[in-house]
Amino acid sequence: PRLERPNLTNVTSYGVPYIDLPTWLVKHFDVRDTIVVKMDVEGAEFKIMNRMLKEDSMLLVTALGMECHNKKGGFTTYDGCADLEARLRAVPNLKLMPEVLWEGYDSWSTP
Question: d(Cα 42, Cα 63) in Å, to the nearest integer?
Answer without folding.
Answer: 19
